[in-house]
Design brief:
53% of the residues are buried. The radius of gyration is 16 Å and the shape is globular. It contains nine helices and no strands. Helix 1 packs across helix 8.
């Protein structure tokens, strides 16, 4: 398989696993009457993210998230064609993951949770949700730059990225679901046909990814190694 094929396969596998576990955890938590709870769901999602980023980082860069890909594109670390292929692959992987959540996990809990689709709390406005998603995505994409993509990155694999997702879910999970990833939100929403508040899961993360790309490319990446 050529280099592009390997990269897209890695993005598909990593994003698929992330969405299947992230959405599936919500379904199973509902089926078990909240046996996992917020902490359990956060740990499961953060752990799978850390493992998938570590597994794919040396093949595709471990994006697994359109917001990360947008940040990398803005930082001129990839080209538009590759970014487009990555994002398309991530969205397809998320759809396949949601389909398998629907087929393999308890149907009643799946229907009750819209296959793990994320929801905005009634106590949070759309603007607040977008800002929260943007801020935490900025931190998440910054973690990708600082611990995965930077030539000065410490050898910690995807651990730092997974830890960001862990504290993001604990902080804003009850408010927005802490998506920080349009693919994570899109797959279950599409298959369940539930797009309530869905715009926040595109606008917020993409703004955060854009901001992170600008900050890292113009300020934080070492100048003599950038390019």
């Amino acid at each position: 398989m050529n280099s592009t094929g390997r990269q897209l396969a890695a993005e598909f596998l990593g994003t698929f696993t992330l969405v299947f576990v992230g959405a599936g955890t919500i379904v199973v938590n509902a089926w078990t009457n909240n046996a996992l709870g917020l902490v359990g769901a956060a740990l499961a999602t953060a752990c799978v993210y850390a493992v998938m980023v570590t597994m794919t980082m040396n093949i595709s860069g471990g994006h697994l998230n359109p917001a990360v890909t947008i940040g990398v594109l803005v930082a001129k670390k990839t080209d538009g064609r590759t970014a487009g292929l990555y994002i398309a692959t991530q969205l397809i992987a998320a759809m396949v993951a949601a389909l398998l959540v629907m087929v393999l996990l308890p149907s009643g809990a799946g229907e009750a949770t819209s296959l793990g689709a994320l929801k905005i709390s009634n106590d949070v406005s759309m603007v607040q949700a977008i800002i929260l998603e943007a801020l935490l995505t900025l931190v998440l994409v910054s973690a990708v730059f600082g611990t995965v993509l930077s030539p000065d990155a410490p050898k910690v694999g995807g651990l730092g990225v997974g830890m960001v997702l862990l504290f993001a879910i604990l902080l804003i999970g009850p408010l927005t679901g802490a998506s920080l990833n349009p693919a994570r939100s899109f797959g279950p929403a599409l298959i369940a046909g539930d797009f309530e508040g869905h715009i926040a899961y595109w606008v917020g993360p993409l703004l955060g990814g854009l901001a992170a790309g600008l900050i890292w490319s113009n300020v934080l990446l070492p100048e003599d190694k950038d390019g």
